[in-house]
Specification:
This protein has four helices and no strands. By secondary structure, it is mainly alpha-helical. It has one domain (4-101). The radius of gyration is 20 Å and the shape is elongated.
Amino acid sequence: MASHCNLRRSVIQLYKELQFMGREYPAGADYFNKKCKAAFLKNKDEKDPEKIEMLINRGRFVQKEIEALYSLRKYRAMKQRYYDKDEMDKQSKKIENFIKQL
């Protein structure tokens, strides 16, 4: 179990990292920052170290999900640049037909 100072440092570091990552959020940096701040303020009075660690872990999970979102966005942009639009349409139709069969 981490001490109070280490937990505080971890929370502040997580907040700063999320704020930094929010600059590229698809819905806009302001939207992301408001939601992030609201989430942290909602739990600001938490005193239980185990609960704080659980919240930090949830924040790290959100951070990884945002990184995955950014990677997917970059992948899609690269795919659009390098693949023919007709070929992408054919692949989309194949996927749609496959989903309909399920």
